[in-house]
Amino acid sequence: MINFDYLEKNLEKLRIDYLAAQPFPHLIIDNFCDEEKLTRAYNAIPELNNKSRDYAFANNKFEKSNYKEICPELKEFYEDLSSERFNKILSFITAKKTFVDPKNFGGGLHQGKKNSFLDMHLDFNYHPLHKNWYRELNLLLYLNKDWKPEYKGELRIKDLRTNDEADLAVPFNRMIIQQCGPYTLHGYDMTNF
Hints:
By secondary structure, the chain is of the alpha+beta class. The chain is 25% helix and 26% strand. It has five helices and eight strands. It has helices spanning 4-9, 11-20, 35-44, 72-82, 84-94; strands at 26-30, 58-64, 109-121, 137-142, 155-159, 165-168, 174-179, 184-188. It has a five-stranded antiparallel β-sheet with strand order 2-3-8-5-6, with no helix packed on it. A three-stranded antiparallel β-sheet has the order 1-7-4. A hairpin with a 5-residue loop joins β5 and β6 (165-168). α2 crosses α5. The radius of gyration is 16 Å and the shape is globular.
């Protein structure tokens, strides 16, 4: 499902782009997945009803951590993310030894509905169940079909050390890999659609 060939052919550029990004290391990769497969996955996703664990600082946001059970394409995506091949790529790009949490603790499929927002916040770094696991990254694959800037909902990021900020567009099939540290705020403003 993941476009491995593109990633492997562009490793050096992706690493430089990630490490040099401001306000803190992050990377935008368009066409991250096979478009047809991702569209099939998108069409299979039901309306979610489990309120997000972010409920304290979010509105109208829902989630499903075990997204791989929804359809074969999302199972393939999960397997690609968990693969040794992807983890080698991710480790090279970020210059850190990494692996993807197999349980997606705090992650998974997130669905923002009308008037959804997520206040600027920091994510946990030390895993609640595995105290020796340190969260280094967030990987966010956007499934916003026909997204337009006037819909709002861009990923907002801010470095608490410098107060520098950036707004990142969130169209369909865009992967944003962002550093997750004690100074890397992120969230999104209320959607407008």
